[in-house]
Amino acid sequence: MKILIIEDETAIASSIKAYFKPNGVQCETATTTSEALSKIGLYDYDCILLDLMLPDGDGFDILKELKRTNKTEGVIIISAKENLETRLEGFNLGADDYLTKPFHLAELLVRIQALVRRKNFQGSNTVSFNEITVDVLAKTVSVKGARLDITKKEIDLLLFLIGNQNKVLSKAAIAEHLSGDMADMLDNHDFIYAHIKNLKKKLAQAGSGDYIQTVYGLGYKWQNE
Amino acid sequence: MNKKLLHKTTRNFLVLAAVILLISAPIFYFVSHFLYIYEADEVLVFHKEDFVAKASEQGFSTADIALWNQYNRSVEIIPDTGLKKDSLFSKDYFDATSQEYEPFRELWAPIVIDGQKYTYTEKNNLVVMEGMVIAVAVMFLMVIAFLMTGIIWFSKRSASRLWAPFYDTLKQIQDFELDKSHHPQFADTDIEEFTRLNKSLERLIEKNVAIFKSQREFVENAAHELQTPLALFQTKLDSLSQLQMTREQSELLASLEQDVSRLNRLNKNLLLLSKIDNETYFELEPIVVNEYLGKNLEFFTEQAASKGIRVAFDNTRPVTVKANPILFDVLVNNLFINAIRHNIENGAIHITLDDGALSFANTGIGTALDAERMFNRFAKINPSGKGNGLGLAIVRKIVEVNHWTIGYHFSGDRHIFTVRF
């Protein structure tokens, strides 16, 4: 998978790049609109991450250009601007998702994966890991072909973990993924422990391997045994 | 007690007029009385001189004295009294006709007739004069009184017209609120002082509004600007988490995660507050309160359950209010999280909703809280608490922009927050 990061804060771009690489996502970066447009013209990307405030113009110009040239790349806006108008304008101009800074890299990664899955959708939208298969559309999970009795939240958690395999996921990142903005308000993120525990139990009962590791103090990690 | 400006000027004017009248009336009387006596004296002296001149010219002799005295009522020649010079004095005589004493002015003067010394006496009745003095005084007072009332009436009328721009300005200033977008528009006036007053006020307001605005924008801009370094911080923490670490390092990193979460929340709340201040959320929609309560009920019930708190919500018939959906969401969430955060282990939260009010009642510390302070920004009742002291400030702000009220009371063992729509 190849993505383009259009972001003038090079430190953010390089963090994203370094984080995504082990998970099979190649990143190219552009720091200005002109650089971005020339790269978009030359290569095809699976997904574009777009910061709205760029030194030589507005991120919306890139969206307009993509629309004009009938490019089908999925676009996720990553912006510090948090208001409805910007969000709506982004979506109207063809953006697929909107993530407000600051965000967790893990969140960004699963959003990209989800977007790419949707874009490449050919009759089925599934995520697999060894014996586990998640049907994203039907909201079902099966282990070795047998369906699991699992809640929506647990599927969400499972997708988040698999998508970020081999990554240490902080409790805050998981909480935010499960509860969105509501997670901000919480004094601690211990509630995710219950969800992890349930998911672990259900997977184990279905005969799946134990892929969820607890990382002391920090959070959890999905890893092949 | 405060009096109105117009009443005060008129009242002062009236007091002055009364004082002047009271003082001037006796002065006027005495002055006119003195002047009359002066005149009367002059007449007496003139008569005497006339008599002396005529007497010597026409050969008035001592023999004529008796006859003169017989036919003359006011002038009498009497034998010499040893007077050396003219003497003028006032004296009352009983008048047989009017049966009362009447005031007279009298002149006694030494004269010489046929070489013999006599005393010339003449008296002048002052009664007529007295009446006249009084009549003139009364007329004078009446004229003054008329003049006074006229002046007062006129000045009152013109003053109220004169001060009209001042009262207009006063009213506008009274209605002025710095955080509202409506600013005073002063009417033009042709009075220099009022124009100056209005100009100064306009300048003052303009300056304050500008400062207020830039301060508000500053908070919003600062919060916005903070988001980029926060994003950097967050992404770097995420990257750091991936490294092999000792237990100690993990612990430090975990606490850093918590700190950045807190920073993030604080920044978001500040941004939200300044956005409400800057009237970003003005679109109103009809909102079914029950739906908004139900929407995140599961999430909050889960959060509450981790502290053993039971949440009870009597979902009665739908209640609809008009509000901004984003803000209403924040309002409900903040009240909910507040009820959980300040609760006790195995406590309870009871949510009630009826037509005019939504209330959250929660168990907590056993005493009432300072209702005045708790809605202020950064007013943390429990300083060691995890909240950032903005939750209830945001609640109050949202309640204010919707023209609702928020109340707090402590009843039984429950802290009850009630929003009245």
TrEMBL record, chain A:
GO biological process: regulation of DNA-templated transcription
InterPro entries in UniProt: CheY-like_superfamily, OmpR/PhoB-type_DNA-bd, Sig_transdc_resp-reg_receiver, WalR-like, WH-like_DNA-bd_sf
MF terms (GO), sorted A to Z: phosphorelay response regulator activity; transcription cis-regulatory region binding
Gene Ontology CC: one annotated term: cytosol
4-aspartylphosphate, modified sites: D51
Domain Response regulatory: 2-116
PROSITE patterns: OMPR_PHOB, RESPONSE_REGULATORY
SUPFAM superfamilies assigned to the protein according to its UniProt record, in alphabetical order: CheY-like
Keywords: DNA-binding, Phosphoprotein, Transcription, Transcription regulation, Two-component regulatory system
CDD domains reported for this sequence: trans_reg_C
Claim: DNA-binding is one of the keywords in the record: yes
Pfam families (UniProt xref): Response_reg, Trans_reg_C
Occurrences of domain OmpR/PhoB-type (ranges): 124-224
Residue ranges: DNA binding: 124-224
Record-linked PANTHER family: REGULATOR OF RPOS (PTHR48111:SF22)
Protein's name according to its UniProt entry: DNA-binding response regulator, OmpR family, contains REC and winged-helix (WHTH) domain
Organism: Flavobacterium caeni
From TrEMBL, chain B:
Keyword Metal-binding: no
Domain Histidine kinase: 221-421
Coiled coil segments of this chain: none
GO molecular function terms noted in the UniProt entry: phosphorelay sensor kinase activity
EC number of this enzyme: 2.7.13.3
Keywords: Kinase, Membrane, Phosphoprotein, Transferase, Transmembrane, Transmembrane helix
Transmembrane annotation, as ranges: 12-38, 132-154
Reactions that this protein is recorded to catalyse: ATP + protein L-histidine = ADP + protein N-phospho-L-histidine
Enzyme class: transferase
GO cellular component: plasma membrane
Protein name (Swiss-Prot/TrEMBL): histidine kinase
Species this protein is from: Flavobacterium caeni
